[in-house]
């Protein structure tokens, strides 16, 4: 599991050094796509990512490849990491964090999926009141709004 070794080393680096390394590889900006994925039971997919700083918990997602459309990127990331095919992909919002752009989608899952990537060490479907406490607050609020049909 190369991500376990690399992930531990990556997370051990100070945040400023991680940003410095990313900026050497991506000199202008980085773009990622993430999604609130809901299944037929109205539960939301939440993953525990090995490489995510802080809690590890978050919505599924990943970086958009050069020339790739963001909605294609999120579908690819989900298929690669969990085997889940998504439908009804809708863009919710876009936000910038320094020189990083994140595009957030809502989508429906066709199947339950399983862990297919060493980047992920836990996959779960959660009702809103069951979501792991350490999920970032902005993601929690977005999930709540999606489940209530506000966005």
How do you describe this structure in short?
With 151 residues, the protein is of the alpha+beta class. It is 30% helix and 32% strand.
Helix and strand topology:
Blueprint: H1 2-12, H2 15-25, E1 30-38, E2 44-49, E3 57-58, E4 61-63, H3 70-82, E5 86-97, E6 100-109, E7 120-126, H4 137-147
Parallel strand pairs: 1-6
Antiparallel strand pairs: 1-4, 2-3, 2-7, 5-6
What about the largest sheet?
A: 4 strands, mixed
Low-confidence stretches: none
First-residue to last-residue Cα separation: 38 Å
Number of helices: 4
The assigned CATH architecture is: Alpha-Beta Complex
State the share of residues found in helices, binned by percent: 25-40%
Please name the CATH topology. Nucleoside Triphosphate Pyrophosphohydrolase
CATH class: Alpha Beta
What coarse outline follows from CA principal-axis ratios? Answer: globular
Count of distinct structural domains: 1
Number of strands: 7
């Amino acid at each position: 599991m190369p991500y376990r070794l690399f992930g531990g080393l990556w997370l051990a680096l100070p945040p400023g050094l991680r940003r410095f390394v990313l900026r050497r590889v991506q000199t202008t900006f980085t773009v990622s796509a993430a999604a609130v994925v809901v299944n037929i039971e109205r539960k939301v997919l939440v993953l525990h990512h090995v490489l995510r700083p802080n809690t590890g918990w978050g919505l599924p997602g990943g970086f958009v490849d050069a020339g790739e459309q963001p909605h294609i990127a999120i579908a690819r990331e989900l298929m690669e990491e969990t085997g889940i095919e998504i439908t009804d992909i809708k863009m919710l919002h876009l936000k910038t964090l320094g020189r990083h752009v994140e595009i957030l989608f809502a989508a429906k899952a066709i199947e339950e999926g399983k862990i297919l990537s060493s980047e992920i060490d836990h996959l779960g479907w959660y009702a809103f009141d069951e979501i792991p406490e350490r999920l970032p607050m902005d993601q929690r609020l977005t999930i709540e709004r999606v489940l209530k049909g506000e966005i």
